[in-house]
Amino acid sequence: MPVSGLPPYDPTNVFARILRGEIPSSRVFEDEWALAFHDIAPQAPVHVLVIPKGPYVSAADFHASASDAEIAGFWRAVNRVAKQLGLDEPGHRLLANVGPDSGQEVPHFHVHILAGRPLGPMLARG
Ligand code: AMP
Predict the structure, then answer these.
(1) What CATH number should be reported for the domain holding residue 79?
(2) Is 0.85 surpassed by the pTM of this model?
(3) Which atom of ligand 1 is nearest to 25's Cα?
(4) Does the pLDDT value for residue 40 go beyond 80?
(5) Taking CA atoms, which of 29, 87, 105, 109 is between 20 and 30 Å from 17?
(6) Active-site entry in 38, 63, 108, 110
(7) Chain-wide mean pLDDT for the chain?
């Protein structure tokens, strides 16, 4: 069992299939380290997902197993996407679900970029 309570990487997960071009996505950015595309069920006016190109199930797995170059390249890509979308000035939220208690649905590490209106409290109460 890898870190973060998730099973080993499943190469048939939906984001792996997007990376391989087997299913479509609405791409906004791609470089050597990362791919960014619009979330299929947006929870804010701007809702983009940024994923690393390597096979990591979660943020915990990524930071434990990826090379320094992959980690730096990925986080620079997150920053570039936010800048490219014009989100630095109005602000935006970066969010990553990790493992069962977080409700992580897709077992390929991803960062949500949420923006486009005041986003309110970080978590719903309850
Ligand atoms: P999480 O709960 O953090 O694992 O988030 C997974 C996200 O992936 C959700 O916001 C979904 O709406 C999104 N999602 C699932 N399938 C797709 C897809 N084919 N294209 C774009 N986003 C997707």
Answers:
(1) 3.30.428.10
(2) yes
(3) 20
(4) yes
(5) 87
(6) 110
(7) 95
* 51-75 average pLDDT score: 98
Report the sign of the C-alpha dihedral through residues 107, 81, 83, 48, in that order.
negative
119 alpha carbon to ligand 1 midpoint, in Å?
Answer: 19
* 105 CA → ligand 1 middle, Å: 7
For residue 33, what are the domain limits?
14-115
* Ligand 1 pocket test target in 10, 20, 38, 49 with most atoms within 8 Å of CB: 49
For the chain, the first-to-last Cα distance in angstroms comes to 30
The number of folded domains in the chain is: 1
Q: Is 63 a catalytic residue?
A: no
Type and span of the H or E element at 65: helix 59-65
- In one-letter notation, the amino acid at residue 51 is I
Percent over 90 (pLDDT), the chain: 92
